[in-house]
Specification:
The complex is a heterodimer of chains A (251) and B (462).
Chain A: E1 5-9, E2 12-16, E3 29-33, H1 37-49, E4 53-57, H2 60-69, E5 74-78, H3 86-95, E6 102-106, H4 111-119, E7 124-127, H5 132-147, E8 154-157, E9 160-163, E10 168-171, E11 174-176, H6 180-191, E12 197-198, H7 199-205, H8 217-229, E13 238-241, E14 245-248
Parallel strand pairs in A: 3-4, 3-5, 5-6, 6-7
Antiparallel strand pairs in A: 1-2, 8-9, 9-10, 10-11, 12-14, 13-14
Helix pairs in contact in A: 2-3
Chain B: H1 6-12, H2 14-81, E1 86-91, E2 97-100, E3 114-124, E4 127-139, E5 145-151, H3 153-203, H4 219-268, H5 272-303, E6 312-315, H6 316-333, E7 337-341, E8 347-350, H7 352-369, E9 378-385, E10 389-395, H8 428-438, E11 442-447, E12 452-459
Parallel strand pairs in B: 7-9
Antiparallel strand pairs in B: 1-2, 1-5, 3-4, 4-5, 6-8, 9-10, 10-12, 11-12
Classes of the chains: A alpha/beta (251), B alpha+beta (462).
Chain lengths: 251, 462
């Protein structure tokens, strides 16, 4: 059984029982560790509206205690907090063998800071101020990763199939020829099928660039990929999510 | 610290202390050398006098053994008449003179034979003067007193002259040394005071003041020149800072003002669609502001030399090919052409992210400004491997940048008139410049005739 936890209702913590067994599919249990109450309030409101159950810890020590007790899908950890900073918190959890995916929130947004966060055991890093859609997309990708099966050699979304060993892509049995980078792009989209992936996430994960170009180069690559996987078929798989990014989805 | 009286400060200067210590050491060594010479000379002269006397005593003693007292008397009489500087006296036991050129026995107790020193009078044309004598005294059989000696007045005088010379020399050295030290210190202190006064005046805000340079090229002048160079650099940086802050004020306030105006306008209307539109615009503009802000922070950090921690061995050719691959589709979609020429592999100590970011900025620029009116863009990337540096060249066929502006456009927030109507922060080229500097290189902007040729020059050895 789950222990008692606090869930933040807007700005006021309310004591309830959260039972993951009763959660709907796709719903995640998220712990937000953030000392700025207003920022935490907005964040929790958004996550709740997206259908996730969210707990709030107001400082590092409280966050560590709650993360140890609770069974969370994702931790959202502010880097600079009173009592214990986010880096220390995640490092301690990792030392104890707790591998719950953690996303760092930080006002420090340089590549060096990101590297530091990832070295401490964080799984992703987002600089303040962030777009909520960006954060949501990343949290959902992280939450899925926890349950992801070990090593896959085949990916499948609807009738689109990817053989990672033969590096072959087919849709409805028909082979699609892709450039190496297009293959990587599609692989990332397929691994995160059903989730929104933002342009920044694609730049980071497919191209390994941790900065934003002024020109929207990603859209052109997506439209080329779309031309190859969707054009000759009735049902589009690659969708544009307005104001957020893209999603590969079968239905 | 309260200022001490001038004379006291003079004594406290390092020059004066140095001069004083030097003087002391010099005086001590000179004193020791001269003293040693003095002492040795006197000793030598005394010994010579004593040897002469001893020889005469020896001779007279032999005469006495041969011919007795009368023989001695004859010798003394004979020698007394020669003017050799010898002093002789032979008296009876009661002191009556028998022979010799001394008038009487010296007024001292004469008991046993030995060396004696006494004064005696000498008649000169100017009267009676007192001289010193050194002599051997002995008593012959029968109680006769015999004194054989020499006038050592000149010897003593010589010693006194040496002694006096020594004291005068030391005294003069001390006076000249102290005086010179004071003079040197005064000059030194005057110049140091001038430097201090200038620095105080600069600290109180008169930034254009400079330390006076005498033009002698000595170490103080060199110090003054170094200080002036530093002040020039500080003034340049401060001017840059002022410029940047006024630029920031302008370029951050303008979009903030637009956001505010739009929000106010939306608030006055009752149309929910307009509210929505205003909110969306607010977010978009806030994002733009944030990008500007991040770019500024990045440039500031890069200029402070931070951010060089991610340097690894990087294949610059590969970085260029990757970035080219990212941009190729967008150029082709606009009907333009994109060419890339790179050597197989060019290794360099660099930060892959930063080099890619610089290239992306140059390509963004080329896409935005690098096309002639209706023509599709023609963009090229080349990596050139030179002996001591690597050039990453991005070319376009646009209007280019006038030669007079090529340095100016690298400054923050500078946008040429033709580009003001298009979106952008005016930070792109300054960002590339700061990335180049972080790698010890530079950004060179040349004419591509027509168009712009932007060269990111990275040295192989930093």
């Amino acid at each position: 059984m789950r222990p008692e936890t606090y869930i933040c209702e807007g700005m006021n913590p309310v004591r309830i029982f959260a039972l993951p067994e009763f959660l709907e599919a796709g719903t995640m249990h998220i712990l937000v560790i953030e000392d700025d109450l207003e920022a935490a309030g907005w964040l929790i409101k958004g996550l709740r509206e997206a259908g996730h159950v969210t707990d709030h810890a107001r400082n590092g020590e409280e966050g560590l205690a709650m993360a140890r007790e609770g069974d969370y899908d994702v931790l959202i950890v502010d880097r600079m907090m009173p009592k214990m900073d986010g880096l220390t918190l995640v490092r301690k959890l990792r030392e104890e063998g707790d591998m719950t995916p953690a996303l760092f929130l930080s006002a420090l947004g340089d590549v060096d800071d990101k590297v530091e966060g990832l070295r401490a055991g964080g799984d992703d890093y987002i600089a303040k101020p962030y777009a909520f859609s960006e954060l949501l997309a990343r949290v959902e990708v992280l939450g899925r990763r926890k349950t992801a099966e070990p090593v896959q050699t085949r990916l499948k979304v609807g009738d689109l199939e990817m053989d990672l060993l033969k590096r072959k892509v087919t849709r409805a049995g028909k082979e699609i020829l892709l450039q190496p980078r297009e293959f990587k792009l599609l692989e990332y989209l397929m691994r995160n099928a059903g989730n929104v992936v933002t342009r920044t996430m694609l730049l980071e994960n497919v191209w390994d660039y941790h900065f934003d170009p002024q020109t929207n180069v990603i859209d052109v690559h997506i439209s080329r990929l779309r031309g190859k996987i969707d054009k000759e078929f009735d049902k589009p798989l690659l969708h544009t999510i307005r104001g957020a990014g893209y999603m590969l989805r079968a239905d | 610290m309260p200022r001490a009286p001038w004379t006291l400060r003079l004594l406290r200067t390092s020059t004066f202390r140095l001069a004083a210590v030097y003087l002391l050491v010099f005086a001590l060594s000179v004193g020791a050398v001269l003293g040693y010479v003095y002492w040795q000379t006197l000793k030598l002269l005394d010994e010579q006098a004593e040897e002469t006397i001893a020889a005469e005593v020896q001779g007279i003693a032999e005469q006495y053994a041969l011919n007795g007292a009368p023989g001695v008397m004859a010798v003394i009489k004979r020698r007394s008449q020669l003017d050799t500087g010898g002093l002789y006296l032979l008296t009876t036991p009661v002191g009556k003179r028998l022979a010799g050129n001394l008038k009487s026995l010296p007024a001292m107790a004469l008991n046993k034979p030995g060396w004696i020193e006494f004064s005696f009078g000498v008649e000169t044309p100017r009267g009676l003067t007192e001289h010193r004598a050194r002599a051997y005294y002995t008593r012959l059989k029968g109680g006769y007193h015999l004194i054989i000696g020499r006038d050592i007045q000149q010897l003593r005088q010589f010693g006194r002259i040496i002694r006096n010379t020594l004291f005068w020399a030391l005294g003069l050295t001390a006076i000249l040394g102290i005086g010179g030290g004071l003079l040197l210190s005064r000059n030194f202190l005057r110049r140091i005071d001038a430097i201090t006064a200038t620095l105080r005046s600069i600290r109180s805000g008169r930034m254009s003041d400079r330390v006076p340079v005498e033009g002698s090229g000595d170490e103080l002048d060199r110090l003054a020149c170094a200080l002036n160079d530093m002040l020039d650099e500080i003034e340049r940086l401060m001017k840059g800072m002022r410029e940047v802050s006024s630029n920031i004020a302008h370029d951050l306030r303008t979009p903030l003002n637009r956001i505010r105006a739009q929000a106010e306008d939306a608030l006055r209307s009752n149309n929910p669609d307009r509210h929505r539109e205003a909110l969306e615009m607010t977010i978009a503009r806030a994002d733009e502001l944030l990008k500007t802000f991040n770019a500024l922070l990045f440039i500031a950090r890069a200029e402070a030399g931070q951010g060089a921690s991610g340097f690894r061995d990087v294949d610059v050719s590969e970085v260029a090919r990757e970035v080219a691959e990212l941009y190729q589709p967008i150029v082709e979609d606009e009907g333009g052409s994109f060419t890339i020429q790179t050597p197989e592999k060019v290794m360099l100590q660099a930060d892959r992210q930063l080099i890619a970011q610089a290239l992306v900025n140059l390509l963004d620029n080329a896409l935005k400004y690098g096309r002639a009116d209706d023509h599709p863009p023609e963009i090229g990337i080349r990596v050139e491997n030179h002996a001591d540096h690597v050039d990453i060249v991005v070319t376009d066929r646009g209007p280019g940048i006038p030669e007079t502006e090529t340095e100016h456009v690298k400054d923050r927030f500078v946008r040429l008139d033709e580009s003001r109507s298009r979106p952008g922060s005016g930070l792109g080229l300054s960002l590339v410049t700061s990335i180049a500097r972080l790698h010890g290189g530079s950004l060179v902007l040349e004419s591509n005739d027509p168009g712009l040729r932007a060269v990111l020059r990275l040295p192989k050895k930093r």
